[in-house]
Amino acid sequence: MRIALFGVSGGIGGALLRLLASDESVSAIYAGARTPPGEIAPKVTPFHFDLLKEDTIANAAARVSVEGSLDLILVSTGVLNDGEELVPEKTWRDFTPEAFSRAFAVNATGPALVAKHFLPLLARDRRALFAALSARVGSIDDNKLGGWAAYRASKAALHQIIRTCAIELSRKNRNAICVAIHPGTVDTPLSRPFQRRVTPEKLFAPEQSARHIIAVLSDLKPQDSGYAFAWDGARIPF
After folding, report:
1. Could you list the residue ranges that cross the membrane (predicted)?
2. pLDDT tens, residue by residue, 37-68
């Protein structure tokens, strides 16, 4: 199995990299980050990319394509709070154009550009999968609390991107699957300021979350393409 991972410098991305690098069925991993990791295993090839710069994504795709098609493309990037432009809002009075621009650039436009350049690299002669990390709060139907509008909206946009790409992908590659996946609340810097009300059994270590993600992705079938799934395999309504 040949895999491309985006965002391996993050908590979940790093855990996914370590988990997949230890899997004997995986023959090659292309591990992408703004600052690529050092040597992890002979099967791991680091590469640089910047989610906000399309040319770096295009260059990565050109490099990977030389060595063959991919079985799994997994985008584990995202931003909830950067302490500057983007701080989760409690009320509409907190809305700023900077927050919405930042959230959409990282959580929606970036994964869309990865899809643009990497979906054509999915294998056509066997099951292949593209997945992007999302969040349950991106579900419009599930929103009962309000708040966090920029983050929620950017993840809802990601769901629409996934659905749109899945429809086109079904016409070009019938074995391929395109989904969003919610990892749960993971003990990483992204969620740390917002863990106060999370019960211990619902707060996952990155390694635990990585195992959940791979287990869910492993069970998906082409008819699941175009949807969002939670860490436990349940489908999340858009």
Report:
1. none
2. 777 788 999 999 999 999 999 999 999 999 99
pLDDT of residue 111: 98
State the greatest distance between any 2 C-alpha atoms of the chain, in Å, as a whole number: 52
* Closest-CA residue to 27 (of 48, 9, 6, 42): 42
In the prediction, which pLDDT does 4 show? 98
- The total number of structural domains in the chain stands at 1
Q: Which residues of 56-73 are buried (b: 16+ CB within 10 A; e: fewer)?
A: bbeebbeebeeeeebbbb
42 vs 58: CA distance, rounded Å = 24
Q: pLDDT, tens digit, for every residue of 167-184?
A: 999 999 999 999 999 998
Can you read off the two tokens belonging to residue 164? 């749109």
- Please give the C-alpha separations between residue 46 and each of 28, 41, 157, 185, in angstroms, as whole numbers: 11, 10, 29, 27
pTM over 0.85: yes
CB neighbours (10 Å) of residue 230?
A: 18
Helix (H, G, I), strand (E, B) or coil at 7: coil
**Which residues have CB under 8 Å from 142's CB, separation 6+?**
136, 236, 237
Q: Which domain holds residue 86?
A: 2-236
Q: In this structure, what token pair is assigned to residue 172? A: 């070009």
Contact 224, 177 (CB under 8 A): yes
* pLDDT tens digits for range 188-207: 766 556 555 656 666 788 89
CB within 8 Å of 37: residues ≥ 6 apart? 8, 9, 14, 17, 31, 44, 46
